[in-house]
Amino acid sequence: AYATNGATSGTPPANQTKTHGVDLTLATNTGSLVKADYTFTGWNTATDGSGTHYDAGTTYNIDASATLYAEWTPENNSFEFAFDITLPTYTSSINTTTATTSLNDPTLNSCGIVTGQATVWYTYTPTANTAIAIDTFGSDYDTFIAVWTDGASGLELVACNNDSASSIIGESQLAIQVQKDITYYIEIGQP
Predict the structure, then answer these.
(1) What is the DSSP-derived secondary structure letter of residue 13?
(2) 62: alpha, beta or left, given left = phi > 0 and alpha = psi -120 to 50?
(3) pTM, two decimal places
(4) For residues 58 and 39, what is the distance between their CA atoms, to the nearest angstrom?
(5) pLDDT digit string, tens, across residues 89-131
(6) In angstroms, what is the C-alpha Rg of the chain?
C-alpha cells in the first residue's frame, strides 16, 4: 500500500500485490502527489523518513506486506533554493528528517561543526540596518544556525551558534546586526 504522508494534493498510486519470491517494481508518483514546500523523493517505510528509502520505480524484493509512505525533502535543501524571508518576523516549521547536506553547502569549521547532516536555507535582505534574532526553539533534535553573506571567494560566515546555553536538547539561538540591502543566507542544520 502507498500513503500520501501529508501531501496537499494528488492521490497515492494503486495498491500493488507482492508475490512471494518475485520482485515487484514500485510505483512512481503516478497520482501527482504534491506537498507545499517539499519535493517528492521516493517511498519510505516510516512516515518520518527514518525507515528504509526506496526510489520510485525501483525493485522491491522483500516478501512481506508493507505500507510505503511518500518521502518528502524540503525544497530549501541547499542555499541555491533558499526560501526568501521578506518580513522581519518569520516562523517556519519544516520536517528536516529527509533533508541532506548539499554538495554546495559551505564548510562550517566554526561552532565545533565540520558540516551539517540535514540543512535547510533561508535568505533575508533587510531594508534598513537592524538587529535580527534567529532561533530553533521548539525543535526536537540538536540544531545549529549559521549566517552567511556573499564574499569574494563564495559564502563568508558572519556568525554561527551550535546549542544555546538555555537549551537541553541542543536548540540554537543567534542575534546579529545586519546591514541594509545585503543578502544574508541563513543555514539551519543538524551538527
Answers:
(1) P
(2) beta
(3) 0.69
(4) 18
(5) 777 777 776 777 776 777 777 777 766 677 888 999 999 999 9
(6) 20
